[in-house]
Records
---
Amino acid sequence: KVEVVVEDDGGDPRTAALAAQRLASRGVAAVIGTYGSSVTEAAQGILDEAEIVHVANGSTAIRLTGKGLRLFFRTCPRDDEQARVAVKALAATGAKRVAIVHDSTSYAKGLADEAKKGLGAAGLALAAFETVTPGERDVTTVLTKLKAARPDVVFFCGYYPEAGLLLRQRREMGWNVPFVGGDANNNPDLVKVAGKAAAEGFLCLSPPLPQDLDAPEAKAFLAAYRAKYGAAPASIWGVLAGDAFRVLAKALEATKGTGGPTVAAALRSAVKDFPGLTGKIAFDAKGDRVGDVYRVYRVDATGAFVLTKQP
């Protein structure tokens, strides 16, 4: 039997460090979470020092698995994979000049830098490289700079509240340049912030949304979820946390729960082509998930995120 112990990181690195310390003091067998890369980064060293296996579900910053922490894993892909798919999606729009915008967080800056590196090989030119501040209410100054740079498309690497604001104020200023966003924009609330008219046509990178999961395990899970809660999960990130739980259960079963280093070894050896909810799962030596996970979605006129053909 499994007892689930919950601590709230509050989406804040300082709170996450305290949450990790509390979990370590309670002697948990493993930790699942969290979503934001900077929040995960504040917790991962504490958990590693306590010899507790840590599996993140939404933290895609490359450096998280570049530190040599043997007990850290993630069921989500990395920003360099996302950047590779992003460049393909940008090129598929027919664009030649690309503007990149980020919000200076670990995730956003990392994704922006990786995308910037890949533009040249795809025959794309960098028109501008700008930043926004999380939580700000007026981004017209940034939009004015972007418009002056004459990009054919804008790639936004931050989170959905700022993406929605950019889309809304872009429409208000009468500028119809296409926007492509990273996976942190995959949230129905983006459409609430932007409005359906401004959000329509927005392209978003993401692991497959729950309704697009086609593995037998996923279909069974989604049917059970709908029966209990009346609707499918609103986000893929919770499903990726479910995959973290499933691979940990597999590793704990294989080792009979004999300590963090042993469980970590089992995640690398016993979890091979594991039938996850989001597809087959295996981990490389660094703890990164192996395989191609990202898809491209388009916001339609109703505000729904619709799967497109891969570029």
---
Amino acid sequence: LKIVPAYRVDTIDGHFTNVLTGQKFAINDYDFIHQHKISVVYTPIQGYSLYGNWGRTFQAGVSADAFLIPPRSNNLGPSLNHGWETGIKLNPAKWLEGRIATWEQTASNEARRILNSASNDSENIGRTRRRGVDVQFNIKPVSQLDLWGTYTWQESAILKAGAGLEATQGNQIDHIPNHMASAGIEYQIIPELRFSMWGNYQSNYFLERTNTAHKFGGFIVANLGLA
């Protein structure tokens, strides 16, 4: 059994200078940002480990919103992210290892860049949640052959929308696919020649937070290589 607690404190300083006008603007006053974390690993049998971790991270202002640039005069506090992950790690033999995990993260007031903003501005979309399941494996049955794969299912939700965005409450966050996967095989045919084949998959996602338009952005990419 291993238990690892941790505690971290951040503070941020700086300013923005408009070189066209010579004006200086202070960065948001985030004060001291306190983050506590703990992780636990339990190995009841050699090659099988149960693990879990919980902690806090943060997200500071994005782009122009990191600074007190008029007309905004009020400091934006950091978005505090609380998350946990728990799962099992498998390594029962030298030729096999894997991981199965479930996780969740909530953000108190997630900040996002506004796409195509002329002033490089951002917005707070509100309290959000992401959660999902990860599966990963690596197999090496013989010295010349490697196989690997990963799969992630995830969902996102706006738990409490920011001011003026009330209609998006309960919707999915834009640009977050629900499914992602990758897999590959590598074979050393002879010492001078290696064959590889691998691919990536991503599902469609909403392009905006009203979730009224169709989903886009999904793809499958396959690769073949000889080296």
